[in-house]
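Shall we go through a protein fold together, starting from nothing but its sequence? Please make up or recall a protein chain and show it to me in full. Go ahead whenever you are ready, and we will take it from there.
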Amino acid sequence: MLDHGLLPYWWKIFEHSKALEYRTDIFRNIEDSYMLKNLEFSSHDIYLDIGSGNSVVPSLIGKLFKCQIITTDFDENYRIIQEQYKERSGLNEKNFLFDIQNATQLTYPDGLFTKVSLVSTIEHIPENGDILAMEEVTRVLRQYGKIVVTVPCSREYIEQPKTFYYDGFERRYDTNAIKTRLMHPSLRMIDELYMCSPDENLTRSLRETFFAEIGDENFTDVWYKKGWYEKYSDISILLSLSLIRLVKDPDDSIFGACLTFEKL
């Protein structure tokens, strides 16, 4: 995060999260900071966030840049949460809305938005939903507008009906699937940053230090299984800095990707 200039953006997100009494997260520390940095917001933007859920970042963007924002999800339960964020951030209906949307069938007109984000979202849309969603967000994006997409990865493309940390469909992309499923003829990739495992010596040291707690499991898996992500969320940035190696050219230890596209 230090080498890629993400830490100042994380600090803004951390402050806003604390103000709204929401936790930070090992992976979202990186994904959200990357999105905030790479979309380069201004007051002239019309921004669409797909799969907003309980993310505090859209309300932070509204607070910082005074642009127009539409947060979306397919779950009506998130409306109350986003409305609370709006009010506590000093925003109003003119610049911050929540909308129920299906990412594969957006109801917005062509070319409405200047910026779009799908952070830890598109991997949960089953079948060819990710391909259809990329077609839709490209359609509603203006020429030269930008999209940030973040997804989990692995050495091989995987689809899972559910995981231990998410009770629903999830796919993990390999580098080929990123090209075949997330690229669109009207987009060009202008930046990519991959999350890989740390140096083996650090991994070994952590395993030895926390052996009784983690055994042979991956440390980050244990972090979520034991609920430490809720209990000790304030130290998540230390784990982001130490357990995640950010690179432009991924190796076999790849487990995540942050991608920026521009519409031609």
